[in-house]
Amino acid sequence: MKKKVTLKQIAKELDVSISTVSKSLRNSLEIGEETRLKVQAFAKFYNYKPNNIALSLKNRKTKTIGIIIPEIVHYFFSTVINGIEQIANEKGYSVIICLSNDSFDKEVLNMEMLANGSIDGFIMSLSKETQYKADFHHITEVINQGMPVVMFDRITNEVLCDKVIIDDKTAAYEAVQSLIDKGRKKIALVTTVDYVSVGKLRTDGYIKALLDNGIPFNENLIIKIEDVDTCEITIGKLMEDKAIDAVFAVNELFAVTIIKTAHKIGLKVPDDLAVIAFTDGIISKYSTPTITTVSQSGSKMGKKAAKMLIDRLESEEEDGEENYKTEVIETHLIERESTN
Amino acid sequence: MKKKVTLKQIAKELDVSISTVSKSLRNSLEIGEETRLKVQAFAKFYNYKPNNIALSLKNRKTKTIGIIIPEIVHYFFSTVINGIEQIANEKGYSVIICLSNDSFDKEVLNMEMLANGSIDGFIMSLSKETQYKADFHHITEVINQGMPVVMFDRITNEVLCDKVIIDDKTAAYEAVQSLIDKGRKKIALVTTVDYVSVGKLRTDGYIKALLDNGIPFNENLIIKIEDVDTCEITIGKLMEDKAIDAVFAVNELFAVTIIKTAHKIGLKVPDDLAVIAFTDGIISKYSTPTITTVSQSGSKMGKKAAKMLIDRLESEEEDGEENYKTEVIETHLIERESTN
DNA sequence: CTGAAAGCGCTTACAG
DNA sequence: CTGAAAGCGCTTACAG
Fold it and tell me: Which of B102, B148, B166, B245 is most enclosed, with most CB atoms within 10 A?
């Protein structure tokens, strides 16, 4: 068991000063060639690597990015992390991930923990509870301390910072429009409860598409659910009543559940019922029939977010704070078997 | 923008020494009550929080766990992280995650980076390439430096350390046995290429189950694939020839592809073809028909791994190194529609 | 060309 | 009861 070697040990061993060792290893030409090479050889032999913690303390930056997301067992968030990680790695940053599990308290705790020197900046997506409470003091506080934050997907307009989102409203609009183009008129929207910002925007897009096409908007066709199980009952009823010929589901779990329910009732997808889901994930791709989705590239969002954060970290010029940007990631419809 | 406050600043402001501030905040009874309360009030007002990096340097431990996994966009690994994170949080640790993307070089790089003081110990699952090369020097090196490592799922016996695995062989055996119990005799095994340790063990279990039941083992029914697309062709042929009446697939992606291929050919699942998949994930749950799986609780593995690592980190007694444990997580069959 | 000193932010054994 | 000093592992401006 040979412990990691430090500058001090090398210095002692070689009978020079710590400064000399440090400078030699950083190839400072202040140091004579002979000493320099000797130190370098020795360091290499002992596989010296500088201690990151010491460097962080000295440089007052850690070269690590903190990510806070609601949930990791979620295809979308995994792809975002993938994107972040890719850019981060290219630029020599590591990432440290904390999960809020959609809890406000855990989100606050995690942020406070990481903000105490562990990271240089945050990339985050709000927990449901945070959106519900609309309490963002923990985020503004961090920003006020001079630590940059980039929010993605589940954001809030009440905090000024860089953001990367998709245009949920337009995306929903286009999805619904595509259903209308295919002759569907009785389109249900299956969505989540309102306080999650994206749910709201998608609903707006849905309504607008209907109205723009002269289709009266029917309150009863909007189904707000919190958990998937209740969805089956409500939707099943609508289907049996032949009240709908298409469904726009706000996520793929809802979509697949709806398709299964339809089958049980004896309806054919897409013939009797067309289905589109928001958020392209692994379920849509492997469901039977495969599900048409609005693709929302998590990886692209992650990359964009990472770039924005790192740019800000590395632009020395203490930017006037007020040049925050909101980047919009384009979406597109991936047509599969569940629509025709 | 009020920057984070440090002990030094508080000391200056209150006109006492840094030591006094530090001790007051740690409630040392060495300090007079009056001073102590004054300092605490002041610190609270300015929302003082000690700098983690400085603490890490001082204490020579970071209270963070490094996780290295091949891929995050993978239900199984996500659930493992979830499990790790849960235990880590309970015990006051954070986690820092790096992805190897199944690349040996990236795995090495990530480990070296984290090993330089950023973390106290590793939890990892080997990349495919690492298993293929069978080069584990980066891992033994870290261990030799006194940094504990816990490996899970994709492990190697060539490295001595704590491990948490599932009993792949037995699990596979049981799955195949259950097919046999249902009267299936021509059971194909769809697996990955051999060098991934788990693939090998599952194959062993498969063969053993057959032999134990007096079913001759037919080399041609073992299909080794590296990517899903080729799987369709090979399997399709076997199905058309009526050469098989059941499939044991080593992961759920293979399973769902097989089911789709069967449908195309006009075979019914499970009537004409029973399907079992290893690794219970989201696809199996939502596929049509739903897929019977061997559940392998990622969350349990993660929790176990985290516990083992933290136990080791916190047992001062520099354990004799040689008491490494391998924990086996139990699996069980989740019966769904794809078998009957 | 080499090294002593100061410092990043903290803790703690030791004096006073 | 309070503070100066040493130290965690490193870097760098400054002397010599």
Answer: B166
Chain A / chain B CB contacts < 8 angstroms: 147
Cβ-in-10-Å burial (0-12, 13-18, 19+) of A235 comes to: buried
Q: How confident is the model at residue B226 (pLDDT cuts 50, 70, 90)?
A: confident
Read off the CATH number of the domain in which A250 is found.
3.40.50.2300
Assign A141 a pLDDT band (cuts: 50, 70, 90). Answer: very high
Note whether residue A337 is domain-resident.
no
User: Could you tell me if residue B339 is inside a domain?
Assistant: no
Q: What is the pTM of this model?
A: 0.89
Q: How many CB atoms lie within 10 A of CB A188?
A: 25
* Tally of structural domains, chain B: 3
Inspect the interface and report whether the beta carbons of B78 and A74 lie closer than 8 Å. Answer: yes
Residue of B nearest to A2 (CA): B145
User: How distant is C1' of C4 from CA of A18, in Å?
Assistant: 10
**CB-strand contact A8/D, under 7 Å:** yes
The residues near A243 (Cβ < 8 Å, ≥ 6 apart) are A186, A188, A220, A221
CB spacing of B49 vs A116 below 8 angstroms: yes
A181 and A159, same domain (yes or no)? no
Show residues of chain A in contact with B78, CB under 8 Å: 72-74, 78
Confirm if B231 and B256 have CB atoms less than 8 A apart.
no
Are residues B177 and B161 both part of a single domain?
no
Contact flag, residue B62 CB and nucleic strand D, below 7 A = no
Distance CA B177, CA A226 (A): 40
Nearest to B78 among A73, A145, A287 (CB): A73
Say whether pLDDT at B152 is over 90: yes
A259-305 pLDDT per residue, tens: 988 888 888 888 999 999 988 888 999 998 999 999 988 999 999 99
Same domain, A104 and A202: no
| Count of other CB atoms within 10 angstroms of residue A140 | 14
Cα distance from B192 to chain A (closest Cα, Å)? Answer: 20
Taking contacts as CB-CB distances below 8 angstroms, the residues of chain B near A116 are 4, 49-52
A16 and A66 housed in the same domain: no
pLDDT digits (tens, 9 = 90+) for A242-255: 788 999 998 888 89
**What pLDDT, on a 0 to 100 scale, did the predictor assign at position A237?**
78
A107–chain B nearest CA distance, Å: 12
The C-alpha atoms of residue A192 and residue A184 are separated, in whole angstroms, by 23
> Does any domain span residue B336?
no
CB B97 within 8 A of CB B123: no
B1 located within any domain:
no
Task: Look at the block and give the residue holding tokens 């495919």.
Answer: B128
How many degrees, rounded to 5, is the angle at CA B209 between CA B204 and CA B210? 100
pLDDT in tens, B122-145: 999 999 999 999 999 999 999 988
Q: Is the pLDDT of residue A312 over 80?
A: yes
- Cross-chain Cβ contact A117/B52 below 8 Å: yes
Domain range holding B15? 7-49
Interchain contact, A96 vs B98, CB within 8 Å: no
User: From the alpha carbon of B17, which nucleotide's C1' atom is closest?
Assistant: D3
**Which nucleotide has the least CA–C1' distance to A20?**
C2
Mark whether B139 and B185 lie in a shared domain: no
- In whole angstroms, C7 C1' to B9 CA is 15
| One domain, residues B130 and B197 | no
CA of B118 to C1' of D14 (A): 32
Q: pLDDT for B13-22, tens place per residue?
A: 899 999 999 9
**What percentage of chain B reaches a pLDDT higher than 90?**
60
Average pLDDT over residues A73-78: 90
Q: What tokens were used for B240?
A: 């058309």
Chain A contacts of B145, Cβ < 8 Å? 1-4
Instruction: Give every CB contact of residue A317 below 8 A, 6+ residues apart in sequence.
Output: none
Are B176 and B284 members of one domain? yes
